[in-house]
Amino acid sequence: MEQQQEETGWVAGQSTQGFGAIEDLVYASDSADLSARVETGVIFPVLVTLKQGTLEEFAARVTAYFEEVRPKNGMFDPPIIGIPDIAGESLAGYEQTKKQAKIVEPAVKAVRSVKGVEGLSEQGTLLVSSEFFNLLSDTSVEASLENPVNDVASLILGAGVPLDSLPSDAVGAHQPLPELELPDKAPNKGVVVTAVIDDGMPIANARFRNALTDSRVAYCWVQNGKFATPVSNVAYGREFNKAAIDGMLTASLVAGTVDETNFYRMSGQADFGDSPRRTLLGNALTHGSSVMDLAAGYDADSDPAPGDNPIIAVQLPNLVTEDTSGGSLDVYVRDALEYILDRADRIADSMGSGPLPLVINFSYGFIAGPKDGTHPLEVLMDGIIKARNAKREITAICLPAGNARQAECHGEIGFAKGKPKVLPMTWQVLPDDRTPSHGVIYMPQTSGVPVASRVSVRLITPDGIASPPIEEVDGQAWEWKPGGGPTLAKISYQYLGAPTGRGRFTFSCQPTTELDRSKPTAPSGHWTVEVTRQALKPTEVLQSYIQRDDTPFGFPSRGRQSTFVDQNYEVFTVTGLPVDVDSPEAYVKRDGTLNGMGTGAETIVIGGFQRMEGAPALYSSSGPELGRVGPDAAGVSDSSEVATGVLAGMAHSGGVFALNGTSISTPQIARRIAQEMSAGTWSGKGDLAGWVVSPPLPQGWPVTLLPTRVGAGRILTDPVYPIGR
Amino acid sequence: MGGMGPETGWTGWTGWTGWTGWTGWTGWTGWTGWSGGPGGGSDAPGLITTKNGIAGPWVQPGVPPVARPQNNTDNLSQLNTELRMAQYEFEMFSRLNFAFNASSGKASLYHLETKNATATTPPTGKYQPLVEMTRPTEANFLDQLTYLNTYSALRTDRGGEIVSQTGLPIPYWSSIPYMSPERTPYTMELLLTAMRLAQYSVMKFKYTLACRRPNEFSAQVQPIIPTPLHGTLPSGHATEAFITATVLSRLLQEIGGPVYSTVEWPTQLMRLASRIAINRTVAGVHFPVDSAAGAALGTTLGDYLVKRCKAKTVKYNAVNFEGTGFGGDFIWTDMVGFNSANKIVQDFSGPASAYWSAQSETLKGSEQSAILTWLWEKALSEWT
User: Fold this and answer.
1) What is the ipTM of this complex?
2) 3-state DSSP helix/strand/coil percent for chain B, to nearest 5?
């Protein structure tokens, strides 16, 4: 067996129980290659979910463990840099204030705790060095203290933040705003807060102003902005409040108009003298410019915002957007949500109001996930909505259904009676793919690893070199290291504990091309993910997803989307029309392609349809998923079959461009929700069904109007730009 | 081409043989050779025969025409653009000179203030400063190189503009005010004159200062258009763009009225100039400091040219651009502002004071160019 493995290159992999998932994600995320991190000095935000204890206790244990197992004269980075806490107190700061005998209790625990979820205690962000991962993954070390990784339920890595974007004492210098307690009363009439999380946020655009230098943006957090010294109220990046934005608008006035290029230079959102990560708003168009305009853009003269409509904008770091797998997303999104909730309360406080109606638009998506409402972001968002809506319906979070219906990235694996017991799924990995590719297979829910393995899986290279089979053994992994060289591919199994409670196989491979010849590359071509039925029942179905890996709009091309290839998957009918129904013979499915974070119960998930024909967009992702049947409703994503997209604003004032996708349909619904909230007529997401219209489809149009596609139905909002399209 | 195909012309060559020989009427077919021969298509043969046919015997005229006024701008309208351009260029370049001081590294463009010639003596004159420049060091340029990386992110965004702006970006200027060769031919001549002034001036500075292009610093710049052969600083596109914006905005402001006196016109023109300049950095062929030097040269020459078009004694800014004093990105609003009359003015204060300054010089009204004044008046009259 050993010799065979030597010949094939497949060797037993490293995968620590409970930690294996992070290894695979680190390996598969675009920020992989940790050894490079040590040299460049990068801080990683990591979203930690603990089984027991608090984050502070965990951080202290990690530090103590580090001090024990690392030699004092060794050159090691300290593992824990800090605990950023928007509304609370950072660890270093806590120590400082303790010394000054001014102990401030960390606030906003509600967001941090994962109350009601069995087996989990706290969830939050730590800023760590790569030493943190080295330390926790090395379970072979002899120590008197227990490896703190045993307390970890899950770790999700955020995109690394270069050290030079934060001064070395940045975390300690973070001064959170004083704690806030809002009166428990109804919100002031006519007020609604619209929050948008996206990239390239054009906060200087006239669409978000009441007057020349009077912005409607109450708060903007540029997460990859230049850290403010000496005082920053956010743990990383840079925040601007309305006063600061109005000041920058005034300072950018040239001959009576705002020079928006100068504004973004001041705000660091288009700074060509700095890191290449800060150039997105130099472009004419960004994803965030369209989304923000549709959600909250109004013409102050001709079509002003209804009532009082302050905006909170959070700009995600460019690195996150580039990593379309969403692997780096969670940390920043979690912090963005916490920030929005806190600042919305401060807006309320400034007007003597109770908690204000808040609609958050987050037009992002990815393909792979448990799709049962238990992704950490789904748990987080559902929790936020439930808690904040306890007394009044004042919170909505809108997400896009996704654009993956035709992506051929979803495979459904079942072994009904009469079907062969081996299913080989062809995984097409493209050449010139400069980012790793990976996919997953989710098992049905069980409480713990099942005694009898339900399936075994092999990963087979394009040349037919098969891994040994992997079964449902937590932490089992095989790595392909041909010729004893670096790992080129990996397959592993982890059991994801509560709240997911499901086993998961992960398969991944390195980029298929590297400019630096010393870096490992995997062969492109047709890999096979071969699933063999063992104890699986004929009625049980597994869901397999290939994670999103393409190049997002506006970025240089790096990743290429890998897909399944299924002989039985028909793309066109014999007459050339696109096929929109799934075939029972094909394992690749169009159904079940909803956004990996869009299957929670409380969020509002929006699909897309064409205004003219009334037909759902072919690409608009659909259910059914374990978490839900389909999106909640569909919004306008295209004007017509030929006039794709919807007109929306661009980065600079005055520009208009048609962008399509469920990213675009969603903010139009968010806009309407905000209008209803402002008018006091919003009573919850059940209202959407009342907005639905039912125009018939054109004769013979090859799409369906099932709830899996359009949820409660199609919502025809007034065009934000009513120009003849 | 007279509608005759080349085949006919070749047949016509055989006609020559016939002609020489006087034999055979086939010689006459040689006439088709006039029309159809290589480079053919001339009316001359037809005119020869017509004159012979209609002129008749010579009749000596008794009265000559009235002599035309000499050295008079009335004669200019009887020329064409190409011939007038020769006049404008002579007016401009006969009053310019250039020198380089090797020890200070200062390249200087001078204006010649003349005293008119008399009946017996040639003109005399005195050179005074117009534009002086010293170049950045190679280390300064190396600092600037990072912008070639960061601005390259805009290549897909600006690619269409960059390619269509490789020549003179006339369509872009014409898309702001209502300009076209048919509607405003003299305005186009004025702008062509401005661009010619910019072109020759910037070429002298480029040659003298001899600054290396971005792709000489790194193999990764990889410009998306061919890097021109001349030196990088100042940027020719920036110089031409800023002289055009300056001259055009002065013209519109002199027209005045409710529309052209607003600040929108010079604002848009300046923004376009800046965009054309920055597009060259996006393309990978210029540093931001090149655009700043071009803006300095272009705005100064633009103001100077307009003043040369007036028979008025006025002051102009003779500027000094210090290449080593420049750092960071090119920001046009640091260098140019607007006064209370919405007029473009050069700004030597604030961050720009690190790299440019000015001293005041005078142009005597009596020494300026009647030809250029004529051009200016003609351009003005095209606008209502």
Assistant:
1) 0.73
2) 55, 15, 35
